[in-house]
Amino acid sequence: MKNEEVSSSGSLPWPAIVDRYRTHRDKGHDGALAGALEGLEILATEIANGPLSSALFGWTSMFDLCIQQTDTAPASGPYLRVRPVSTGCVEFRYIDTAVPERQWHREVPPEAVLPRFRTFLEQLHWVG
């Protein structure tokens, strides 16, 4: 994968994250997982190609996309984890506490990933 330079904090450049999801898609995942992975690729592409690319920092873990506001070590503070679910949906989970029951989370179909992400940004005032 190109653009795979990890920052000193551990975040990846957004083009590298997009490449990672394209690679997953090209591996021929089928069924529900394929749709959910496409939703993650669309989200990563939206961030990479816009002003959010310099305001948000991301990394991946298996199929999960993790996003935080600061370029610090992954998971060193609150972050948003976006992951494919076996049902074909995409789960958004804001990890700001170690208690899963207290974490904000939503599941949406792949076509609703961008609107859900935009609403999340607005609700938490992550970017101006």
Automatic annotation (TrEMBL):
This is Uncharacterized protein. It comes from Sphingomonas kyeonggiensis.
